[in-house]
Amino acid sequence: MSVGVRKTIDETAETVKAHSTADPVAWLFPGLGSRFVGMGADIIGKSPAADKLITLAAQKLGYDIHEVCFSGSGRKFVPPRIEAQVIYVINCAYVDVLRSLGRQPQFVCGHSLGSWAAAYAAGAIDFESGLEMVTAVEDLLEQRIPDGEQAMGVIIGLDEETVTRICADEQYVYLANSNSPKQFVIAGRAVGVDAALEKAGEQAAKKTQRIAGSRAMHTPLLADVNRELQTALARITIDDPTIPQMNCDTASPMHTAVDVRRYLGQFLQRPVRWEATMHALGDLSITQFVEVGAAAVLTGMMPFIDPSAKIETVSDLLARDETANAIDPTTPVLTDR
């Protein structure tokens, strides 16, 4: 960690301590992998704040958000473009429900796709601009990346040094996500990713598996897509965040519109250093975390990163919030995941 980043974290931590009357909390926003049939069932049709946002999204997108969220079972397949849009919409809907109940975090942080909802929660972008950018990213990925050329894979049970060495042994294969101790995502050219996964298995990894999809997210292979995204970003307004958003590459807080714009314009080709970012939030005096999304993806990682951290899903928080007058507890909740 650079001296400048360390100083920023120390100064921000002192500010949090000085202005917090309750235990400081960070909202965490999941990305791909957090969609399932029944997502958002605890707020859709039960919170005016959520319904208002979802109605706006449906008008902009031209399809029924309810149909995507509730029709079918399990993790039914939907096109990547729709999956990304719906995850963003539901994440933001939870933000609006929490805001309607007077809740506010000290920091926000998004994992990959979750960065857009985090920017919305931070006050850096408006909802429609975020939806436009999520759609632009998916359109660029679909247009620029041939099917089958790129891939991603997960490796569990090896240390970061070993995974990094395995990636270095293959051409155009990179460490994309450092999620938690001994849980990593690699990405790159499909042939190289398959070879790296095989080598990881030979070195006694507990699990190696290809991830569905054909995009080498968070690697230099997306540099061209990233440049076009920067052009798209120039069309939208980005404000200074009212709540600091974490940069998951440098594991440091962002306080200005310039910082947020730079991050959003680069993160597709930069690694997600999730474990380091969670530790940085701990250094910033954060003692509680809420996963603001439909699933419990990030919640499941946290005990491996910091067993002492307090974390809950937004659904659990809303279920126990006695002030949640916007939620009608008598309405049945879908539970089919």
TrEMBL record:
Entry's EC annotation: 2.3.1.39
UniProt keyword annotation of Transferase present: yes
Residues at the active site: 112, 218
Residue ranges of domain Malonyl-CoA:ACP transacylase (MAT) in the record: 28-322
UniProt GO molecular function: [acyl-carrier-protein] S-malonyltransferase activity
Keyword Transcription: no
Catalyzed chemical reaction(s): holo-[ACP] + malonyl-CoA = malonyl-[ACP] + CoA
Gene Ontology CC entries for this record: cytosol
GO BP annotations, alphabetical order: fatty acid biosynthetic process
SUPFAM superfamilies: FabD/lysophospholipase-like, Probable ACP-binding domain of malonyl-CoA ACP transacylase
Enzyme category, top tier: transferase
Annotated keywords: Acyltransferase, Transferase
InterPro entries according to UniProt: Ac_transferase_dom_sf, Acyl_transferase_dom, Acyl_Trfase/lysoPLipase, Mal-CoA-ACP_Trans/PKS_FabD, Malonyl_CoA-ACP_transAc, Malonyl_transacylase_ACP-bd
Family: Belongs to the fabD family.
Record-given protein name: Malonyl CoA-acyl carrier protein transacylase
